[in-house]
Amino acid sequence: MDIKKYIPELIEKAFEMRNRSYAPYSNFKVGAALLTKDGKIYGGCNIENAAYTPSNCAERTAFFKAVSEGERDFCAIAIAGGPDSGVRDYCAPCGVCRQVMAEFCDPETFTVIMAKSPEDYVDYSLKELFPLSFSPENLK
Ligand code: THU
Predict the structure, then answer these.
(1) Which residue blocks in 45-125 are alpha helix, DSSP H?
(2) pTM value?
(3) Distance, CA 27 to ligand 1 centroid (Å)?
C-alpha cells in the first residue's frame, strides 16, 4: 500500500483526536491516527488518570481500539502532540508504545509520522525508532 496518499488524512485525524485528549495532569494533549493495510483509520488520544500509572498514550489507545475490532495489519501511524497551547514540536512515541508497535507491525515498513501540521511532518520506519527490539520473532 502506498501510504503517501493517506498522510494528509492521517495527520488531520491525529489533530482531531487530540481534541479528545483527557490530560488534566500533564496538560499535554496527544492524538494519533493508525492506518490499517486495507485503508481503515483508527483514532486514539491520551487518557490520563488521577493514579497516574493507568494513563494510556494516544498511540496505544489507537492500537487497542483497532486490535479489539479484529485488525492485525497496520502500515502507518500519525501522531500530533503538545501542550494545551498547541503543537510546537514533533511528538515522538514513548518506549512502551514502540514496544506495542513492534508486536503488530513490520519494523521495516511500518511508518511513524510525527506532525506539527499537515504540511510539516517527519516520518521514520519503526526499525529506525526501535532498533534491536524484542518482538514475537524472539519467541519463535
Ligand atoms: N503521550 C502520548 O500520548 N503519546 C506520546 O507519544 C508521548 C506522551 C502522553 C502520555 C501523557 O498523557 C502525556 O502525553 C504526557 O507524557
Answers:
(1) 58-68, 95-104
(2) 0.98
(3) 10
Q: CA 56, CA 37: separation in Å to the nearest integer?
A: 24
Burial, 57: exposed, middle or buried (Cβ in 10 Å; 0-12, 13-18, 19+)? buried
70/93 Cα distance (integer angstroms): 23
Report the C-alpha gap between 124 and 115 in whole angstroms.
12
User: What is the grid cell recorded at 20?
Assistant: 479528545
Task: Report pLDDT digits (tens) over 50-67.
Answer: 999 999 999 999 999 999
Helix (H) and strand (E) counts for the chain? 4, 5
Q: Is residue 1's pLDDT more than 90?
A: no
Q: What values do phi and psi take at 80, rounded to 5?
A: -130, 120
* Closest residue by CA, ligand 1 atom 1: 57
Cell of 134: 524484542
Q: Whose CA is nearest to atom 13 of ligand 1?
A: 28
**Chain length of the chain:** 140
pLDDT tops 90 at residue 131: yes
